[in-house]
């Protein structure tokens, strides 16, 4: 009670009680004494309702032990790693920083907490209160990660260290650079061949009908290869541009498979195509893109399967909401280390064989993007010496 009301308030209540007792002794009237006590106590409490004298302004400032939880609460609300540095030691770190650097970093020297030479050099340098340029850290966390470190000095001398994950941006930029380099290379190779044969035809070799016919056949084949590559690049660009717009047309996959196999009937291995078609609901899709998907997957199976072995195209329901489409060959198979990269643009297991068979290196990349646009799943399984099975699971079209 004393802690709540204050020392002076308690003393005033004691004085009021003594006055009431004196009134009782002098007058002998208990009721009057009770009235005196109640009134005196009420007066004291009303006077003390504002509490004791307010503390001096300096005592209102939060002590370090009180301020640290507040700082921790603020930085904990930020998802990216944040640290507060005081006297070159980690005073506070949010969950993102603890996950990246470890929970032990609290209280550690910042050079031990962030084990990176560029970060240590920046954080140990006397600060001139200027934010400075961001520091790029490679290998912090994992070898592949790229981080951007920004440092800001507070008015009390402490510094806030903000780590921004740039791994995704770096990967996207690297993919863009690799894509441009690969596309340029893929176009330059047939173009160089075209120019070489045309130049030869302009000279004496053009006078011999047999040589001219052979060279023109090669020129035509290289031109077709360039045309296919350009068409695949345009197709990939179009699919990527539409990936956020889910297709909603009702597509009968059984009929579409029949159309594609008829179109491939002129291929050398058309007789090896085997279909296993179950009764399934129409899928929600884009007929043109799904036809391209079938051409690419079935075409790959026919190219890389062993001659005389079947290429099996199976269609069956997958629960009530999905349809499973699979294309299996009995070819040489693909080593396990190559499978995760098969859908990368221009990635080939055997570059020489792929080019000789007319592959552009974009077929499975296109398939992947088509499946993603259709909100489906793609799985590639392969066993060396036994063959490869490409499976696509696509959602059926819901009837509203």
The proportion of residues forming helix, as a percent range, comes to 40-55%
- Spatial separation of the terminal alpha carbons: 69 Å
What does the overall shape look like? extended
Count all strands and give the number.
12
User: What profile does the largest beta sheet have?
Assistant: 5 strands, antiparallel
Computed structural class: alpha+beta
| Uncertain runs | 1-5, 30-39, 42-46, 49-65
The total count of helices amounts to 14
Percent strand equals 15-25%
Q: Could you tell me the radius of gyration in angstroms?
A: 39 Å
Main sheet: strand order: 2-1-5-4-3
What order do the SSEs take from the amino end to the carboxyl end, as H and E?
HHHHHEEHHHEEEHHEHEEHEEHHEE
Identify the notable features of this structure and list them briefly.
14 helices; alpha+beta; 12 strands; five-stranded antiparallel sheet; 48% helix; 400 residues; five-stranded mixed sheet; disordered N terminus; 18% strand
């Amino acid at each position: 009670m004393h802690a709540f009301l204050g020392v002076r308030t308690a003393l005033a209540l004691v004085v009021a009680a003594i006055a009431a007792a004196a009134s009782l002794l002098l007058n002998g009237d208990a009721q009057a004494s009770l009235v005196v006590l109640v009134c005196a106590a009420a007066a004291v409490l009303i006077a003390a309702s504002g509490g004791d004298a307010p503390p001096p302004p300096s005592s209102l400032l939060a002590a370090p032990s009180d301020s640290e939880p507040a700082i921790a609460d603020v930085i904990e609300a930020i998802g990216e790693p944040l640290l507060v540095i005081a006297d070159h030691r980690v005073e506070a770190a949010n969950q993102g920083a603890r996950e990246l650097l470890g929970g032990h970093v609290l209280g550690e020297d910042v050079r031990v907490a962030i084990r990176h030479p560029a970060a240590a050099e920046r954080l140990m340098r006397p600060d001139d209160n200027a934010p400075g340029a961001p520091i790029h850290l490679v290998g912090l966390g994992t070898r592949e990660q790229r981080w951007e470190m920004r440092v800001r000095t507070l008015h009390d001398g402490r510094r806030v260290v903000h780590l921004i994950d740039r791994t995704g941006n770096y990967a996207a930029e690297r993919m863009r650079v690799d894509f441009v380099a690969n596309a340029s290379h893929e176009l330059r190779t047939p173009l160089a061949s075209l120019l070489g044969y045309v130049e030869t035809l302009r000279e004496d070799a053009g006078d011999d009908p047999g040589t001219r016919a052979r060279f023109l056949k090669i020129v035509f084949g290289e031109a077709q290869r360039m045309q296919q590559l350009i068409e695949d690049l345009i197709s990939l660009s179009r699919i990527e541009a539409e990936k956020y717009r889910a297709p909603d047309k009702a597509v009968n996959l059984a009929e579409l498979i029949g159309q594609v196999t008829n179109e491939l009937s002129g291929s050398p291995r058309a007789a090896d195509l085997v279909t296993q078609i179950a009764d399934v609901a129409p899928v929600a899709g884009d007929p043109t893109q799904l036809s391209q998907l079938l051409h690419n997957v079935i075409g790959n199976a026919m190219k890389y399967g062993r001659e005389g072995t079947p290429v099996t195209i199976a269609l069956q329901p997958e629960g009530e909401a999905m349809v499973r489409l699979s294309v299996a060959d009995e070819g040489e198979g693909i080593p396990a280390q190559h499978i995760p990269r098969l859908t990368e643009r221009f990635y080939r297991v055997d570059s020489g064989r792929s080019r000789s068979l007319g592959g552009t290196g974009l077929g499975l990349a296109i398939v992947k993007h088509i499946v993603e646009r259709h909100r489906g799943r793609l799985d590639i399984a392969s066993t060396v010496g036994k063959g490869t099975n490409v499976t696509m699971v696509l959602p059926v079209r819901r009837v509203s």
